[in-house]
């Protein structure tokens, strides 16, 4: 029996200003088998290390700020007729300790020990009560 390691995926979330907006997009977004769908052109090469075990960490406005559990990957045909992939994720958006992340192309991964920790409800309330510019400055200084 071969055991595969758990791995997490990191994905940019263009045009999204904050975690609340991401949660709204998830509530209003496409569903497949009751799961939220993230459409992408290609399937990660390391999908077997992620599906059912890992999460997709979302980069929002230059920070890794939230995650969703990845249930599975499923091929689909895109509107342009090309093959694509649906990433089927749990609808719950979980805020994580913000971590700066520059834009990138392709896939990025976290090993479990490198991923930012989830925020507690208290942490999340305090963080979201803070003005955005202050939250960003404190995060860039690694004080959050």
Largest sheet: 8 strands, mixed
SS field, number of helical segments: 3
The amount of helix comes to 10-25%
Q: Report mean pLDDT, rounded to a whole number.
A: 87
Provide a descriptive summary of the structure in words.
The chain has 144 residues and is of the alpha+beta class. Helices cover 19% and strands 35% of the residues. The chain is built from three helices and eight strands; from the N terminus they run βαβββββββαα. Strands 1, 2, 3, 4, 5, 6, 7 and 8 form an eight-stranded mixed beta sheet that branches. The longest helix is centred in the N-terminal third of the chain and has 10 residues, at 19-28.
Outline of the structure:
With 144 residues, the protein is α+β, with helices and mostly antiparallel strands. It has three helices and eight strands; from the N terminus they run βαβββββββαα.
